[in-house]
Amino acid sequence: MNIISSWHITGWEFAALAFAALLVGFSKTAVSGANTVSLAIFAAVLPARASTGVLLPVLIAGDVLAVLTYRRHAHWPTLWRLFPAVAAGVVIGTLFLVWADDAVVRTSIGAILLLMAGVTVRRRRTAEQTDDPDAVVTRAGRVKARSYGVLGGFTTMVANAGGPVMSLYLLSAGFRKLGFLGTSAFFFLIVNVSKVPFSAGLGLIDGRSLLLDAALVLFVVPGALLGTWAVHRINQRLFEQLVIAATVVGGLQLLLR
Q: Which PANTHER family match (predicted)?
């Protein structure tokens, strides 16, 4: 296959990328943050920096499917609060990519994910009741949204790893399952599309990467269908536990790679 030979990968390595693409579809419609495993697979099979450019269109395909599935459940006040801070984070992440090597990127993001997972677990254990998503309009809510927004924009730009950061924010803001998925679907579709010019400018997206994407996107669809089936069979408590567990696994694998 020309695609495989142009990337110098084996059939088994392409199969691993296909599985990672399927997992992207599942994570976008069921357990957000689980695609940190996909990030690890892409980075293991492809050159680390190039892998982020190949993965981005795959993520966008998953975002489109998630928006089509959960569009009625998005909480737009939260999204409008997040976008300016995320834009700042994307710019910072772009500048960071200019000079940082792969080891620095992995260590920084892994540490951030583990720290925020710990904060979220502690917060949810000590809180007497969950927050209302409308709390984002309070002063404390705005500060939290901006903090998570900058970190989310930074991590999504440098390694497509913004999913766990924003998952933790939405959990800490008290979102229930469908509201969580609907809000994150629109959030990541808009953010990931906005990243395309930056990634292309850095040389991470080109004709060769898009040819590989054309083959991998086919595997996102069955993953999304599986996620849509599974999400209605997962209760709220298990859903939150899976999101946090996926974040911890993603942070550890970034630190230990």
A: MEMBRANE TRANSPORTER PROTEIN YDHB-RELATED, TRANSMEMBRANE PROTEIN YFCA
